[in-house]
Amino acid sequence: MSQVELDPNLWVDRYSDYLYNYTIVRVNDHEMAQDLISETFLAGLKSKKNFKGEASERTWLISILKRKIIDHYRKSNSRKGKAEVRMTYSDDDAEGDWLEERVEDLSDKTAEDTMENEELGLAILNCLEGLNDRQATIFKMKTIDGFDTEAICNEFNITPSNLWVIIHRARTAMADCLQKNWL
Amino acid sequence: MKIHMKCNEATHVCDKAQYKEAGFWERLSMKIHHIYCRICRQHAIRNTKLTHLFQRANLKTLTASEKEAIKQRLGQDLDRQ
Q1: What are φ and ψ of residue B38, in 5° steps?
Q2: What domain range is A176 assigned to?
Q3: B79 touches chain A (CB under 8 A)
Q4: Could you count the other beta carbons within 10 Å of the beta carbon of residue A160?
Q5: Does the CB of B20 have a partner CB in chain A at under 8 Å?
Q6: What is the spatial distance between Cα A161 and Cα A153, in angstroms, rounded to a whole number?
Q7: Segment A148-162, tens digit of pLDDT
Q8: Which of B14, B9, B2 is nearest to B47 (CA)?
Q9: Is A21 in contact with B69 (Cβ distance < 8 A)?
Q10: Cβ A35 vs Cβ B70: under 8 Å
């Protein structure tokens, strides 16, 4: 297997969106997610020499991020009594079939949906890494951030027809990649 | 409005339609093209599916300034390497 070299200068541009989407579903806090990502990159820099080149850069960073997320939860759970479950049947009027009310609601599939959508999101970002950097940036701005054609054209100093060619190529590549890895 | 669109025009309109930037008549011409052009029709189905996948994934990106902030936090450490 070929050795992978680390290239920290490109980390933020290449992986921050991937790491962000990975983190945000786990900590659900925009600021905290950004802190965790910065810490991950910093920890990555510090332990650069421990990187054996067996995994991809991103896999390696994710493994650091996982530790950071676990640490974050350890810290926030260290106060006791947070996980207590309370039943709210205090007086006689409120008596009900409390056991039955706690039976799993089968119509509620949100947790599974969230999980599946997270995997889909990471699959998409994974495919985006297959595009070249400029193409990926423009495609993301248009498709994920929803910028106007005009705004993107001004920023990159290209014509609308240039833009649509880039978008078309990116969409074709993305559809091929997702067909292989997702559908 | 054009009755007979070429394939490359239909593809272009299809791409624009994914971002709601295609006009009514353009879309109509595209639909007419799809009646007799199987390849474009299938391409359009795939292209639309891709749009739906993006909607479902509900991805978020960090803004350019947020990325810059992370870079700055890193920058000091990068210099020391």
Answers
A1: -65, -40
A2: 116-183
A3: no
A4: 13
A5: no
A6: 10
A7: 999 999 999 999 999
A8: B14
A9: no
A10: no
User: Quick check: A41 and B50 CB within 8 A?
Assistant: no
Of the partner residues A16, A125, A171, the one whose CB lies closest to the CB of residue B70:
A16
Residue B73, chain A, CB below 8 Å: the answer is yes
Write out pLDDT tens, residues A17-41: 999 999 988 888 889 999 999 999 9
pLDDT band, residue A1 (cuts 50/70/90): very low
A24 within some domain: yes
pTM for this prediction = 0.76
Q: Are residues A14 and A72 in the same domain?
A: yes
Using the Cβ of B46 and the Cβ atoms of chain A, whether some distance falls under 8 Å is answered with: yes
CB pairs under 8 A between A and B: 88
ipTM surpassing 0.90? no
